[in-house]
Specification:
Elements: H1 4-15, H2 17-33, H3 40-72, H4 74-96, H5 103-117, H6 130-140, H7 146-155, H8 161-183, H9 188-193, H10 196-222
């Protein structure tokens, strides 16, 4: 049976894929303009596989580190549980565009990581092969993104590095339909996911789920 956490991560990626379009849509679209026009789907798949690989690596790293400390301290595990619920609420508000709830985190990621990694672009361009498309996706998988960072807080609650990587894999799979549709030029899905009412509805789901996670964490704290 699939772990409910993996299912939740997939749903989070699916619901939040409208934000992925805003963050990475231009990158995915430019990829199609810069590559072999006879194989757009193959290049789009390669790009997204590379992106998922970076997510999995990040998930394995944070889960491996946090699981070590969680086994040493029950309080650390509870803090992680609270963080998961809190970030779920923040990303819900972010998707609804009711506030810049995660922009500070994206700015931090840009300063600490992204401004250094983006320099590697010169080794990949031009994107004239599938391996380069995959490498391009792997690089841009580290683009500062509040949605990804929120998913990583879930990965941090995993018991092993492998479980953390799987959480991020399922999250990435949830974003695949929207991101692949960009590569194939589909516009209807983009408009639907970015419609104000759609953002409010989808963001509300994440907020309520975040509240649910906080209630569970509180119950564990009291008992």
């Amino acid at each position: 049976m699939i772990d409910p956490l993996f299912v939740s991560a997939f749903i989070m990626g699916l619901i939040g894929s409208g934000h992925c379009i805003a963050m990475c849509g231009g990158i995915a679209s430019s990829l199609q303009l810069a590559t072999d026009k006879t194989r757009p789907l193959q290049y789009s798949i390669a790009y997204n596989i590379g992106r998922a690989g970076s997510y999995m690596l990040a998930g394995a790293l944070v889960a491996g580190i946090s699981s070590h400390f969680a086994t040493q301290s029950h309080w650390f595990a509870l803090i992680l549980a609270f963080l998961s619920g809190l970030f779920m609420i923040l990303v819900g508000l972010y998707i609804m565009r009711l506030g810049a709830s995660l922009q500070w985190l994206e700015s931090l990621g840009k300063t600490l990581v992204w401004q250094h990694l983006v320099k590697l672009n010169r080794f990949i361009m031009p994107i004239n092969s599938l391996p380069k498309a995959m490498a391009y996706g792997a690089l841009w998988g580290w683009l500062p993104c509040g949605l990804v960072y929120s998913a990583l807080t879930w990965a941090m609650t995993s018991n092993t590095a492998l479980d953390g990587a799987l959480v991020m894999l399922f999250f990435a799979l949830g974003t695949f339909p929207a991101m692949l549709s960009i590569g194939m030029g589909a516009q209807v899905l983009h408009k639907v996911l970015n419609h104000p009412w759609a953002r409010i509805a989808l963001g509300s789901v994440l907020i309520w789920y975040g509240i649910y996670l906080l209630i569970i964490a509180t119950d564990k704290l009291l008992h």
